[in-house]
Here is the input.
Amino acid sequence: MTSTILTVDHLDKAFGGKQVLHGVDFFVEEGHVVGLVGPNGAGKSTIMKAILGLIPINAGGVEIGGEPVSITSHRALRKVGALIEYPGIYPFLTGRQHLELFAAKHHQATNIKQIVTALGMDTYIDRKAKLYSLGMKQKLGIAQALVNQPKLVILDEPMNGLDPQAVKDLRDIIRNMAANGTSFLISSHILSELEKVADDVLILNHGHIVREAPMADLAKVGGLTYVITPANLSQATTALTLAKVAYTIEGATVVLHEDTDTDLLNAALYALVQNGVAIKAIDRKARDLEAAFLAMVHEDKGEA
Amino acid sequence: MGTLIQQEWYKLTHKLGTWLAIGFMVLVQVAMAVLAAVYPDSPLFNASTLVENSYIGGDLVMFIAIASVASIVSMEFQYGTMKQLLYRQYYRSQVFLSKVVVAVLQFLILQVIAAAMTVVLSLIGGKYDWFATAKNVPHWQTYALGQAGTLLMGLLLLSVVLMLSTLFKTNAAAIASGFIGYFVITIAAGILIALIAKWEWLKWNPFTFLMTGNQLVTPALANMTHLTTPVMVVGSLVYTVLFGLIAYASFRKRSI
Here is the structure.
């Protein structure tokens, strides 16, 4: 049985006269990885700052492990590790000294060694941080967020500047820690990466949560796509047109978008077989997060 | 709170500049002592005057402390590390207080080093008698009073520097104003005294209280500041706390 580690309850936030968060309401369960996606200016960083008690809020509340968090109430943040916007670096300290500075005293050496190895930082951890590249700084920021083995980790664009190996390492670390009960709230513009690591997704637009769903369900929102490679494209399109099956052509393939009609594939295959069209291959693709995200943001614009 | 102070101390002691500044101060003190030994008759290197000024160590302590205090808050904004300090279980007041504690600690340690070097160098030189008296007051007592006065004046000046660096998020303005403030008490004190003689209410301005150290050593200054020494001491502390509170209020409101 899982319990809730983070509760964000009808959060309102305005900067000056501009409302940037409108009743944002969600929760994160223990051991879950939640992706927070949205266009620039949607309010992702503001939500994260509010959760971390960095900014005052106008209404609503935040609780971590059942304890309230606000700009004047930080006790619950002892369970939290975070990287917000970009990693802050003291140029006169080495990477290891940064970790020593922020790591809790107990198990300090073990925790530092583990995280440095897991993120592949061994070769440069004892160099001054002012000599680090963007990716190295980003890893150091992530290492600082994780070094105290927090119960909740908040990462804002953690993949920024990371090379493919580092992205994979980070993904593995997140999945391993989540398996051990750590929860994550991650915002990222690299939706394909988020798709690989998140259990649930929150889509934010204009300060509203426009969709909150498990990743698997979100992929189904836009339905499935079937890509059929016929032996003869012209024969195949004629057969499908006669059978009144909706399709599009991409190169030498016929693409079926199963948005609502779940019998579409059956109807298409029946038409092709009936007309003697040989089929070389059929691919089934779930709609990806990016497509679902774009569709929802556009829908939200349409409603607005 | 202890953890925060340790972390601030860790940052301070891992800055190369911290050690270079101490090394420079000690070197200058040694150089002044050597010059006093080589040119014993030169009025520039008079042994008594040099000891009273801690072989210029007193001035250097102030310069180092001003630069350090000006950076202690502003560097967190400059390096983008302020968020990391604030999204932990600690409150802004604790983060701010830990910085103040470490800044005061550094100032005290610098003063102790400068004073210890002064004693050692004067003993090696052998030209200074700490137990001799001037106006019935032994030299060691005058020196100790001077140190206490420097401490009071220093804390007041550093509170102004901290306030400015927090208000402007940059250390440049704070360092500049700290240095100007320091020169005001050494160079422009005469002008201030003349102004107080004309408009008595001006005696309550904070610059007057920067002369507390001088008045502790030379009580006759009370005739010019128009304030008794105990009032100067209390006023100096009150202004220090006031500027510290303004600095905290600014730090608390600062958006991240």
